[in-house]
């Protein structure tokens, strides 16, 4: 008997065989959860990412998630190859691009931005601009202007927290409150007192 003889190797059990249809049997809700998970856990190691996504899916295993991701990757790669062939340009498939495409193409209607999200986005954008201005002030030694900017940032953060608490989606109401609190004492310790309530 030789180890290379195919007749001596045990037959693969039916449970272990790859079923081609596994990657295809996904509901739109499951696909939305997968897309959200790929975006949310994009910095995690692959196996951890798949495990966390699978834990959110009632009828899917880590293997199912991995197979679906592999299927999506191949599908997007083939699509790009065809586009590249037709456009006669060389393609480089980037995992982040594919994740972004999957997330964007599979957004469920309940995940579309709401009006509150627009307000949140605007406040975050304002804070980003304010932090950029603070950074510019630091490099140009205009430090006194930064205290007013910090007050504006604090006001925006308060508004963000208020919006988050008031406009919690029904599914999130059973979650514990956010553990992070705005530390006003810390901010007050290095900002001078102000009589400018219109900035808050």
Annotate the secondary structure layout.
Layout: H1 28-40, H2 46-55, H3 62-87, H4 95-105, H5 115-139, H6 144-166, H7 184-190
Helix pairs in contact: 1-2, 1-4, 2-3, 5-6
Describe this structure in words.
- The chain has 200 residues and is mainly alpha-helical.
- The chain has two domains: 13-110, no CATH class; 115-199, no CATH class.
- The protein has helices spanning 28-40, 46-55, 62-87, 95-105, 115-139, 144-166, 184-190.
- Helix 1 (28-40) packs across helix 2.
- The longest helix is centred in the middle third of the chain and has 26 residues, at 62-87.
Amount of helix: 55-70%
Which class of secondary structure composition applies to the elements? mainly alpha
Order of helices and strands: HHHHHHH
Q: In one word, what is the shape? A: elongated
- How much beta, percentage-wise? under 5%
Q: What is the average of the pLDDT values?
A: 72
Number of helices: 7
Distance between the termini: 84 Å
Report low-confidence residues grouped into runs of 5 or more: 1-20, 108-113, 196-200
Largest sheet: none
Oligomeric organization of the protein chains: single chain
Count of β-strands = 0
Rounded to the nearest angstrom, the radius of gyration is: 25 Å
Region (Disordered): 1-22
Biased composition (Polar residues): 1-11
Organism: Microthlaspi erraticum
Protein name: Myb-like domain-containing protein
């Amino acid at each position: 008997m030789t180890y290379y003889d195919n007749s001596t190797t045990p037959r693969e059990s039916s449970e272990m065989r790859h079923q081609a249809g596994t990657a295809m049997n996904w509901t739109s809700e499951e696909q939305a959860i997968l897309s959200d998970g790929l975006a949310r856990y994009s910095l995690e190691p692959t196996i951890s990412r798949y495990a966390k996504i699978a834990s959110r899916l009632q009828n899917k295993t880590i293997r199912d998630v991995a197979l679906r991701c592999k299927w999506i990757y191949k599908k997007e790669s083939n699509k790009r190859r065809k586009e590249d062939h037709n456009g006669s340009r060389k393609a480089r498939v980037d995992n982040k691009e594919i994740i972004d495409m999957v997330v964007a193409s599979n957004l469920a209607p309940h995940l579309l931005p709401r009006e509150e999200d627009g307000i949140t986005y605007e406040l975050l954008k304002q804070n980003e601009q304010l932090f950029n201005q603070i950074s510019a002030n630091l490099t140009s030694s205009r430090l006194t202007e930064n205290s007013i900017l910090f007050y504006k940032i604090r006001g925006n953060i308060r508004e963000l927290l208020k919006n988050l608490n008031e406009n919690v989606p029904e599914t999130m109401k059973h979650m514990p409150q956010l553990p992070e609190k705005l530390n006003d004492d810390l901010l007050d310790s290095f900002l001078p007192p102000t009589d400018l309530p219109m900035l808050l």
